[in-house]
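Re: [ENG-882] Designed sequences occasionally contain unexpected residues at chain ends

Forwarding the minimal case from QA. Structure tokens:
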């Protein structure tokens, strides 16, 4: 079996502001998604480490940029989960601004992983992220996770519908089905992401 480069990921720190991130050199990937979409679970399964990203629902914990280096020059960045109901509008606006600035200015950013619940894709936050992707010309992989909750036919229908919408929203973005529970799509995602990070 091929070695999984993401296994080397480890927690470095949580940043409240962009100037707390590591120096903007080397290469990194950012994981974004609405709260509860399954972002932490996706990070954990891609990195093959159960407890790497916290699958916690506490907003204080998720409203940070969490830095997971793989080595000295390659990193994963877990962007704050978006849309948690109890987060006040002011804080929401703050994170919208932080994410916007990060996506526009971060030179080491090689690509964005947009995690969406396959049963509820392309909500307002996701569309906003795709607008950034389109405007900034970033690579973007949409992981339609919890695909284990769909039948094969439903999965095919969802992926077809999402790909069609992506053509209009952000034609460079791609989408695939994913399941942290049964491992569906995990190898495929790792291959794409390793290509962006190390290619
Ligand atoms: P986050 O808020 O986006 O980081 O979401 P989490 O990773 O914490 O997941 C939210 C909930 O969805 C948890 O109860 C997970 O166990 C569940 N979940 C995450 N991924 C999957 C998946 O692929 N399949 C299923 N069935 N449940 C999942």
């Amino acid at each position: 079996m091929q070695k999984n480069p993401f296994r080397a990921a480890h927690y470095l720190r949580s940043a409240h502001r962009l100037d707390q991130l590591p120096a903007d050199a080397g290469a990194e990937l950012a994981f974004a998604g609405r709260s509860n979409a399954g972002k932490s679970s996706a990070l954990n399964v891609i990195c093959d480490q159960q407890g790497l990203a916290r699958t916690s629902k506490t907003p204080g914990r998720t409203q940070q940029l969490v830095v997971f280096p793989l080595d000295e020059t390659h990193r994963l960045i877990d962007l704050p989960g978006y849309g948690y109901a109890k987060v006040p509008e002011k804080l929401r606006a703050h994170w919208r601004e932080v994410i916007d600035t990060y996506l526009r200015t971060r030179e080491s950013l090689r690509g964005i992983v947009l995690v969406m619940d396959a049963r509820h894709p392309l909500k307002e936050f996701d569309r906003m992220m795709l607008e950034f992707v389109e405007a900034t010309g970033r690579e973007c992989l949409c992981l339609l996770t919890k695909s284990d909750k769909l039948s094969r036919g439903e999965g095919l229908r969802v992926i077809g519908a999402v790909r069609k919408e992506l053509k209009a929203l952000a034609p460079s973005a791609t989408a695939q089905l994913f399941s942290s529970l049964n491992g569906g799509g995990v190898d495929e995602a790792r291959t794409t992401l390793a290509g962006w990070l190390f290619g």
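QA comment: On inspection the terminal residues look reasonable. The first strand starts at residue 13 and ends at 15. Proposing we downgrade this to a documentation issue.
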